[in-house]
Amino acid sequence: MRFPLLIILLAVLIAGCNLLYKPEVQQGTLLSPEMLANLKPGMTKRQVRLLLGSPPVNDVFHTERWDYVYSRGQAGEKFPLQHLTLYFRSDTLVRAEGELAPAALVKPANEKVTPEKNGVNSTR
User: Fold this and answer.
1) Which of 4, 12, 22, 27 is geometrically suited to a Cys-Cys bond with 74, CB 3.0 to 4.6 A?
2) Contact assessment for residue 27 and residue 71, using Cβ atoms and an 8 Å cutoff
3) How confident is the model at residue 106, as a pLDDT?
4) pLDDT of residue 17
5) What would the mean pLDDT of 70-99 be, rounded to a whole number?
6) What's the chain look like in SS3?
7) What is the β-pairing status of strands 81-89 and 57-58?
8) Rounded alpha-carbon distances, angstroms, from residue 53 to 17, 31, 41, 80
């Protein structure tokens, strides 16, 4: 009689651990509204790095593009992902994309981006 009661008690205790406490998990670079408000077109890469920190995602094939990614949520749940992509031309910030992009750096949707603006050389 004692053995099944002990197993049931142990099972309830183990199952309760996941129900009572779920730690908050933060990953990536937290960008505050103040940091994003200070982000302006024409800033150099050095100025952006001093303001936002080094980008956590570096693509060696696209050196003129920096990606900042941030997620926050409870353990065991799907994390909402926020991102900011910055585009440079000749070491100067020209535009931004993503949920965190400041309005001053977002290009209108009807403006066409030429390969030269993207940093891709169209001549071979």
Assistant:
1) 22
2) yes
3) 82
4) 63
5) 86
6) CHHHHHHHHHHHHHHHHHHHCCCEEEEECCCCHHHHHCCCCCCEHHHHHHHHCCCCEECCCCCCEEEEEEEEEECCCCCCEEEEEEEEECCEEEEEECCCCCHHHCCCCCCCCCCCCCCCCCCC
7) unpaired
8) 37, 9, 17, 22
Q: Are 54 and 3 in contact, with CB atoms under 8 Å apart?
A: no
On the CB side of 47, CA atoms within 13 Å amount to 12
Q: In the chain, what are the domains?
A: 23-104 (3.30.1450)
Position 116 pLDDT exceeds 60: no
Q: 93, 105 in Cβ contact below 8 A? A: yes
Tokens of 51: 């303001």
Q: For residue 47, give both structure tokens.
A: 């100025």
Q: Cα 31 to the chain's mean position, in Å?
A: 9
User: Could you read off the pLDDT of 28-75 as tens digits, one per residue?
Assistant: 888 888 999 999 999 999 999 999 998 887 788 988 999 998 888 777
pTM of the predicted model as reported, rounded to 2 decimal places:
0.66
d(CA 102, CA 117): 19
